Amino acid sequence: MSAPPPLPDARPPQPPEPPGPGQPQLPKRPKRPKLPKLEDALARWERETLRPAVARTPERARLETSWGAPVPRLATPADLGGFDYVTELGFPGEYPYTRGVQPTMYRGRLWTMRQYAGFGTAAETNRRFHYLLAEGQTGLSVAFDLPTQMGHDADAPEARSEV
Questions:
Q1: H-helix or E-strand containing 149?
Q2: Phi-psi category of 44—alpha, beta or left, where left has phi over 0 and alpha has psi -120 to 50?
Q3: pLDDT digits (tens, 9 = 90+) for 65-85
Q4: Is 162 exposed, middle or buried (0-12, 13-18, 19+ CB in 10 A)?
Q5: DSSP string, 49-93
Q6: Using CA atoms, how far apart are residues 124 and 118, in angstroms rounded to an integer?
Q7: CB burial of residue 111 (10 Å; 0-12, 13-18, 19+)
Q8: Buried b (16+ CB within 10 A) or exposed e, 132-161
Q9: pTM to 2 decimals?
Q10: Which H or E run contains 140?
Q11: How many helices (H) and strands (E) does the chain have?
């Protein structure tokens, strides 16, 4: 059995070329801090975990987002540079809500479970909503017909096949 090919650097690639016209200009991040313990753990992960996995199933040559930005194999705290935990990540239940809207992160209040409803007449739908709420439903999602979602009246010519 031959040795697997050498792996490219597991750290994310450098930022892509400057954005073209009409694309937002992102602020430059400072150089990544040195994190020796993290770097040692990353080297071990590459050697013991990643290398055997890539030997079994090679990666795609390039993975990118739908807008063409390269997706790194792995992101670590070293990639955050001048990241400000308080203003950019925040705490659960507080702006910018990157960790959820519940301060307990759903350890107390569970996710809202929703059921689609919205069939029949307005009165039937209203009765159904009241029934669901009385039975403990914590949220409702109204299912409109497609023409209504698209802003058409039910008798509009564009809605003929849908209503």
A1: helix 146-149
A2: alpha
A3: 889 898 888 888 888 888 887
A4: middle
A5: IIHHHHHHSPPPS--B-TTSPBPPS---GGGGTT--IIIII--TT
A6: 8
A7: exposed
A8: beeeeeeebeeeeeebbeeebeeeeeebee
A9: 0.37
A10: strand 139-142
A11: 4, 2
User: Is the Cβ–Cβ distance between 148 and 154 less than 8 Å?
Assistant: yes
Query: Tell me, what DSSP letter sits at residue 48?
Result: I
**Which two three-digit tokens encode residue 90?**
């925040």
Length of the chain equals 163
Q: Which two tokens stand for residue 29?
A: 């991040």
Sign of the torsion angle spanned by Cα atoms 128, 133, 134, 135: positive
**pLDDT tens, 101-142?**
877 776 666 667 666 666 677 788 888 889 988 998 877 877
Q: In this structure, are residues 92 and 102 in contact, taking their beta carbons and an 8 Å threshold?
A: yes
